[in-house]
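Table S2 (text version). Query chain:
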Amino acid sequence: MQLAHVDPVAVAEEASLVLREAWAPPALHYTADYLRWQLGFPGPAPRAVLAREGGEPAGFIGAAPRRFRFRGAASEGYVLSFVSVRPKFQGQGLASRLYAELLDGLRGSGSPIVVFVEARSAAARRVLLKAVEQAGFKLKALAACQNHGFVPRASARPAQAVATPAAAVDEVLAAIAACDGERVLWSAPDAAQLEHSLRDPRSRRLLRVEEAGRAVGAAAVFLSEIATAAGVDRVATVDALYLPEPTAERVAAVLRAASEAFAGEATVPVVSAPNLAIVPQDQLRPAGARATGATFDAFVVHPDGAPWLDAEVTNLEVV
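Corresponding structure-token output:
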């Protein structure tokens, strides 16, 4: 088995093959175009490792560029994801080797890294924790990201908050700059990253959230593509919330807007919200959000730790 550091954009076709075979439906629809976009964000160079056996792709792991802010300190960083091994190569410890190889390449970056692992996969969690320890990194578990669903319903009560399409990226940047909660490892994309996000091969919108005529936050929503046994479902999805002071009304405004943003494109009537972790639990039900069975454990990893390992929660999209 040969492992090599690769340009993830250049090997997107091979990575797509590995991911689609590794993750049985229902799972994210890992097209090559999606991977090129996700791993092509502006920022530090994306990192990836591809395993091949006799020239045949066997496993893949990638780290996509991101920007973070915590307690006023901003940094380029990565979201580590796409860990996958094709079924016929599983059971050989390849996932551990992929993690080890990628983390070795990231050691000198000094950047914070966010990792998501399916909560139901104890084996995947063990592999991650062991790889991080062996690589000499420090790790902190953040609040878990439980997926929530939302079904729009008619209401006789006028909404106090509304979410509408942002007229310019600057409106969203202003909301991001206002996010300063000291517990939160904030996703803090700059203008170049926000503009790149809108080149998502799936439909995507940036929203401005208003209440009583003033801006109170922003959000990103997109049309997720989920591979199922019957084909591909398209589901309106909340990507990231930029709410400095989240309330049930403001979260509900984003969920309502997401349900309306992709009329004629979504194939199911439910809105999916994979990460509402910054929203207090007692505000979720009044917002109309209902927990589903899907949960991801979130971690922040860093070579040194400070200050990033003081974070308790992140608003970063689950990748």
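Notes on Table S2: The chain has two domains: 2-146+297-314, 148-291. The first strand starts at residue 2 and ends at 5.
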